[in-house]
């Protein structure tokens, strides 16, 4: 893939709008990711049809996995791998694994006992179509498939130490140092009382880092590990991805408050109704937008030192996230 470095990218810290070349780059990456995801959950085993109840779980897995997400996380994984000198194909199983974890978390998050949502990506949520029991089974099956996929990278010739390190990073991103911690803090957020605004902001940042940024971070780290990046390269990509992940969630909060359900493909304005702790609530919409822009500049600074041409997709990805409309 050849992305021309726009002239305003000469200084890595400059901010530009995502260009059409980047959008077609993203679409082409999304096409390879979608193909790999499609192949990863077949509806039969070696052409033997599955029993009806098992088939239903596989259909529920495919429903969320293949229902048109933006594929930001797997794309980041592939680009990180290429940035450190690896091939896209080397990181594809890990990229799919990260998207499987994301899909699993969306299914669980939408359940009535969690965020209780009925609309996701403009379609009924998983449990609305398949029922709660099947949705929970599908979410768990996606988690275990994520591990299986990553381990299978050894068959592509990736050294087993890299694969084990990737699985360890992935597991950490899901548990009480990652998604689970963020979700638990988020669910309790509305009931918490804080001494002052700083404490409230600290709690909010904890939620967003764990609920969103950690998986974005894992995507970049897994890609860099699979591509054979040095520890220093992995650390720099991790710092970039943490800023991008946090910025992603700040913008998610802003969009929830400023866009319609039709524009978002999910129930808009829900955070306000449920009294959820969000960045616009704590600092106002305009300050939240400014904060996202600051995080974008910080993210781009972490990329200094990498090849200035190869880094363009990551600069554009950060711009895309801060400017996104859904
Ligand atoms: C054990 C996997 C697992 C999770 C348990 C339920 C849970 C803990 C965590 C929920 C985490 C969650 C849903 C965070 C929201 C992150 C977020 C910003 C989602 C929207 O991401 P996009 O915009 O979605 O990338 P698309 O639709 O484009 O894929």
UniProtKB/TrEMBL annotation:
Protein name: Isoprenoid synthase domain superfamily
Cofactor(s) for this UniProt protein: Mg(2+)
Pathway noted in the entry: Isoprenoid biosynthesis; geranylgeranyl diphosphate biosynthesis; geranylgeranyl diphosphate from farnesyl diphosphate and isopentenyl diphosphate: step 1/1; Isoprenoid biosynthesis; geranyl diphosphate biosynthesis; geranyl diphosphate from dimethylallyl diphosphate and isopentenyl diphosphate: step 1/1; Isoprenoid biosynthesis; farnesyl diphosphate biosynthesis; farnesyl diphosphate from geranyl diphosphate and isopentenyl diphosphate: step 1/1
GO biological process: carotenoid biosynthetic process
Signal peptide residue numbers: none
Listed PROSITE patterns: POLYPRENYL_SYNTHASE_1, POLYPRENYL_SYNTHASE_2
NCBIfam families: FPPsyn
Record-linked CDD domains: Trans_IPPS_HT
GO MF entries: geranylgeranyl diphosphate synthase activity; metal ion binding
Similarity section: Belongs to the FPP/GGPP synthase family.
Gene Ontology cellular component terms for the protein in this record: cytoplasm
UniProt source species: Arabidopsis thaliana x Arabidopsis arenosa
UniProt keywords, alphabetically: Carotenoid biosynthesis, Magnesium, Metal-binding, Transferase
């Amino acid at each position: 893939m050849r992305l021309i470095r726009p002239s305003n990218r000469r200084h890595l810290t400059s901010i530009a709008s995502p260009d059409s070349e980047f959008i077609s780059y993203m679409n082409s990456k999304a096409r390879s990711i979608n193909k790999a995801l499609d192949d990863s959950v077949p509806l039969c085993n070696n052409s033997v049809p599955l029993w009806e109840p098992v088939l239903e779980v596989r259909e529920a897995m495919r429903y969320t996995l293949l229902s048109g997400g933006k594929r930001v996380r797997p794309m980041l994984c592939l680009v990180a791998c290429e940035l450190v000198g690896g091939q896209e194909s080397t990181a594809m199983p890990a990229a799919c694994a990260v998207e499987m974890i994301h899909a699993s978390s969306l299914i669980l998050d939408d359940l009535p006992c969690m965020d209780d949502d009925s609309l996701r990506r403009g379609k009924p949520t998983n449990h609305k179509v398949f029922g709660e029991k099947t949705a929970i089974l599908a979410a768990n099956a996606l988690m275990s498939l994520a591990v299986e996929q990553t381990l299978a990278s050894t068959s592509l010739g990736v050294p087993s130490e890299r694969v084990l390190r990737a699985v360890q990073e992935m597991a950490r991103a899901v548990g009480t140092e990652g998604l689970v911690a963020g979700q638990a803090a988020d669910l309790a957020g509305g009931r918490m009382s804080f001494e002052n605004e700083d404490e409230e902001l600290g709690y909010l940042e904890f939620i967003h880092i764990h609920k969103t940024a950690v998986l974005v971070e894992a995507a970049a780290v897994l890609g860099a590990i699979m591509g054979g990046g040095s520890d220093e390269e992995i650390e720099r990509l991790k710092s970039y991805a943490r800023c991008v992940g946090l910025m992603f969630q700040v913008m998610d909060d802003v969009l929830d408050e400023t866009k319609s359900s039709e524009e978002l493909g999910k129930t808009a304005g829900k955070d306000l109704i449920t009294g959820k702790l969000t960045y616009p609530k704590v600092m106002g919409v305009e300050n939240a937008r400014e904060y996202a822009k600051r995080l974008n500049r910080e993210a781009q600074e972490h990329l200094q030192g990498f090849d200035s041409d190869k880094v363009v997709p990551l600069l554009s990805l950060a711009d895309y996230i801060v400017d996104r409309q859904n």
